[in-house]
Amino acid sequence: MRILDLGDAALTVEFGDAIDPALQARVNALDVAIERARAAGQLGGVIETVPTFRSLTVVYDPLLTRRATLEAALSELIDAADHAPVGDGRHWRLPACYGGAFGPDLADVAAATNLTPEAVIDAHSATEYVVYMLGFLPGFPFMGDVPAALQLPRRSEPRLRVPPGSIAIANGLTAIYPWESPGGWHVLGRCPVPLFDATRAAPALLAAGDRVRFTPVSVDEFARLDAELKAGRLDPQQWCSPAGEAS
Amino acid sequence: MSALEIRSSGALASIQDVGRRGWRRIGVPWAGALAPQLLRIANTLVGNDALAPAIECFDGGQQFVAREGAVRLAVAGDAQLEHLTAAGKRSLVAWRSLTLAEGETLRVVHTGAGRLAVVAVFGMARPLVLGSAATYARAALGGLDGRALQVGDRLSVIEPAPTPEHHLRQPPTPEAGPIRVVLGPQADHFAPASLEAFLTAPFEITAEADRMGVRLAGEPLVHRDAAAREIVSDAAVPGAIQVPGNGQPIVLLADGHTAGGYPKIATVITADLARLAERKPGEVVRFVAVSVAEAEDLARAAEQSLQASLGAIVPLAGDGLVDLDALYSRNLLSGIIDGRDDDGDAA
């Protein structure tokens, strides 16, 4: 563990530099400990925390506290987080319509991995992924690990427009784009469930530590789910089971 | 109620406040004014809460028209203004409030040394999204329909009472000299000579400079080795300077990504971030390193001098009954008055 300088209004507690559920567990443990301390009125001046794959960034107001004060207050919490067990988040089974217009890179990924498109879909949907962190775009989940047989570097030419809902892979990670955005990942399919809604109490559907699996659905089923969700007749929570329950 | 109509949005104009806090963990940047001190001065000039939403203008070209009644505005930032009335147009300097009668126009002709001006509007309430009215266009959050302002937009505002206008006689003078940074968090990903070059060489502001960040161009910075060109993504904050494989730094600003996979060589300190965002394409900047403790002291000193500016805001002489600026320009600077409205903007 080391503490890295991120200007005069943030510091980063770095637990390691790999993508590893054990590191993420320590990040989450420190995140929870800081949240608890703040709820108890401690750590004045802290604005927010940002958990990532392997580090927790603490953002603070330099008019209200100082790095030295904060670092001293954090040291005990950091020690405790070093021994955190890997937790169990909520389990999601999200619908995914693979291939066709929704998955323009499915054929290329199949060719590059010497698999049939069906085998790519099977491998991608058979794996349970951990949500390592949210970032890049509001609600964008970085999930892993993608099976070794599907791991490819990013596209050499990023797309200018990846449609919202696109499910994509790059290296060991998979993600769902909540927004239209440029993107360099390989797009395999599309998920109809909205990942971000500012009117929800928790705007992001997924949280770091959640587990996600994809259930392949047909184009017709995708269209039905998409229409029902847009009309507000389906609650995205229906694809979720709380922590501790098997999916 | 009156309305403020956007007659021209210029290069870019958007509604901003101090931004939304607490959602970086789900990938939502703060957004908010790139120069928060201008927001606070403009709002104080116009008689709003200092942290109320206002209109952030890039590079000038914006025009605002009062509709359905009077609208009081105030402009903070180094900007040249024109007030267009039925009688003609007159030039004004910023750092003051101004009440537009129905049909009158305020034009931000251009900005001066910096790119940014903030136009505060008396009594302009905006709905909060995730705790803030700041526009974050990528996710359609805040502002007006989650986007930058467009020609024809109308914002409803409270009609002001006929109270004196206010001004700030001595605008804050921006600090000169290099932009101060705290090195890290990934300064160790760069060859020592490149770290040295980063702190001595000039970097040009490129045309790719917006609310997300500013791309710089200079002698390419060299990573320690090929593996050091990327990191497992970690969090970024406004001010973080990331260096992708091409060696050209990108300074992240208010709308910048919350996390990223490029090494960050340094972070611009709080006190200097607006100063960097104000720089225009083609200008050259240099960086100098300070310690975290020094940067904290500088943030506190900057806040103190802002408080001094806010405290120095006073009613315009003549109690608003006689506009001395206008008299001055009419009597002594006759060339500025132009009865003909050559571009037909007087409504």
TrEMBL record, chain B:
Domain (Carboxyltransferase): residue spans on this chain: 25-305
Gene Ontology terms, MF aspect: ATP binding; hydrolase activity; transferase activity
Keywords tagged on the record: ATP-binding, Hydrolase, Nucleotide-binding, Transferase
InterPro entries: CT_A_B, Cyclophilin-like_dom_sf, PxpC
SMART domains: AHS2
Keyword Transferase assigned: yes
Name of the protein in question: Biotin-dependent carboxyltransferase family protein
Organism whose genome encodes this protein: Denitromonas halophila
